[in-house]
Design brief:
Helix 5 packs across helix 6. The protein contains 7 helices and 4 strands. The protein is mainly α and 132 residues long. Helix 7 links the parallel strand 3 and strand 4. The longest helix is centred in the middle third of the chain and has 20 residues.
Length: 132
């Protein structure tokens, strides 16, 4: 959703802005450090720029993971790999970061705002997902 917010595709950017605005009406917004790292990986960005942008959007960054986050992420990733192989999909196409994001939200009782409802719904069945 955050990548779409910064997209040059005006429709995608507007949909993401609307989704974030609606989510903010439900309560405070936060991301985990894994989201920050993914956003920083896109060309031409600096840590300071991203921190300032998240401050401007009133999105806090939760930097710490604990052992439960890592374990749940690993279990969810294992399930994904098994489902992918069983369906004939071959090698995994997702990275473990996606599962750290889901574990972070799931273990804290957060809702997850994502455009990838299918992945997170399968990996984290109890997670409340907010999608476009």
């Amino acid at each position: 959703m955050l990548i779409a917010l910064r997209s040059t595709d005006r429709l995608a950017s507007q949909l993401a802005a609307d989704a974030l605005r609606n989510a903010a009406l439900q309560g405070p917004l936060s991301i985990c450090g894994a989201v920050f790292a993914e956003m920083l990986g896109l060309p031409g960005r600096s840590s300071k720029e991203l921190i300032d942008w998240f401050d401007e959007l009133e999105i806090s960054i939760e930097w710490k993971f604990d052992s439960a986050d890592w374990q749940l992420a690993g279990e969810a990733y294992q399930g994904y790999v098994s489902r992918r192989r069983a369906s004939g999909g071959g090698l995994p196409r997702r990275i473990v970061t996606d599962f750290l994001i889901g574990a972070h939200a799931s273990l804290r009782g957060y809702s997850l705002l994502t455009a990838d409802q299918r992945l997170y719904g399968a990996a984290f069945p109890g997670l409340r997902i907010v999608s476009l």
